[in-house]
Amino acid sequence: MSAMNCAYPSVDTIRAAIGLAQRAPSVHNSQPWRWHLINERLHLYADTSRHLPATDPHQRALIVSCGAVLHHARVALGALGWHSEVETLPNPAVPEYLAVLDLAPRRPTATDIQLAAAMTHRRSDRRRFDWGKMPELSLKTAVEYGTRFGAGVQTVASADRPELSELIRRAARHHAHDVPYRTELAAWSGCRGTREGVPARNTAAVRAEDELPGRAFADPALADPKLTRDAATWLVIATDSDERAAQLRAGESLSALLLAATDLGLATCVQTEPLGLPELREEIRFSICAGKHPQVMVRAGLATRAAPLAETPRRRAEDVLPF
Ligand SMILES: Cc1cc2nc3c(=O)[nH]c(=O)nc-3n(C[C@H](O)[C@H](O)[C@H](O)COP(=O)(O)O)c2cc1C
Asked: Do both 147 and 80 map to the same domain?
């Protein structure tokens, strides 16, 4: 029977959509979410037992990650023929209760199908990006798509890059002596054979000489292409307020931006290291985001000449959606 003839998706359809949505990016691949299917409604909760307090003291990256999985789930359901109506933060007395989805049959759009396909081949690419001409129109399209979900997406202007470079370096220097941060990083990266965490094979050694270096992970094992410089464009996703609802929207915008960029052939990687330090976050807010609240940053560029990256593992649908 086609979805058009049913009022509600089968459990198998929900499981398939949640399985696909597991491809969503999350801070240190912590996958800090769980789903519940109750009375034909799909409920999303933040799983605070997976919070990374030393990396993400205010749970910002945790909520942004949950926003990303929310958008991924909506796209996956859409591609399977189910439109979702979303209410966010349905019960203010339960802050971990992030969203409830009501589903109705709807023919998949071409965008649903393209973005769902992009979920399976999007990767966080931490290598240097190529100097070939970045297709400006593709980046503009991805940025525009990201802004539809309620957060602003801006490109870091050349004039602001030295300031951002300095703030990134200050974050790295701070974390180099921060024992709880380093302990958490060691527990969640350099991983081999687990369903969570950042695998060694997906991280390249950080090169301090790069203008805007990324976060250094444990035991990097990814070969960098032979490029003398990194040509990444940096984007910041920022919101007018800094409440949980805004952070969730930033995560939806992030997911939309990454999937559209992947679909258009761009390489991307999320970056948040200085945003986990309140003082540096405030400096980024006022020096780069004109007072808006920075929630997450993204490197984007061309990785055309580099080898494809291995998929980062995920927990299974049944791990996050109990039946
Ligand atoms: C909120 C958030 C923060 C992240 N911060 C960083 C970061 O600072 N540096 C980095 O290299 N990757 C960062 N990532 C990317 C994750 O490490 C990545 O999504 C995860 O390991 C899964 O790998 P994949 O994106 O290749 O599927 C972040 C992702 C999210 C959603």
From this structure: no
Q: Which domain holds residue 48?
A: 3-122
Q: Among 270, 275, 284, name the best residue to mutate to test ligand 1's pocket (greatest count of ligand atoms within 8 A of Cβ).
A: 270
Cβ 103 vs Cβ 201: under 8 Å? no
Which H/E stretch holds residue 145?
Answer: helix 136-147
Asked if 260 and 118 sit in the same domain, the reply is no
Identity of residue 203: T
Task: Tell whether 143 and 275 lie within a shared domain.
Answer: yes
The pLDDT tens digits of the residues spanning 74-129 come to 999 999 999 999 999 999 999 999 999 999 999 999 999 999 999 999 999 999 99
Residue 108 in domain: yes
Locate 227 and state its tokens: 């490029």
- Residue closest via CA to ligand 1's atom 21 equals 29
pTM of the model: 0.97
156 and 291 together in one domain: yes
Closest CA to 36 of 93, 121, 94: 94
Q: Is the CB of 59 under 6 A from ligand 1?
A: no
Tell how far the Cα of 9 is from the centroid of ligand 1, in angstroms.
31
Q: Report the nearest atom of ligand 1 relative to the CA of 62.
A: 1
User: What's the number of domains the chain is made of?
Assistant: 2
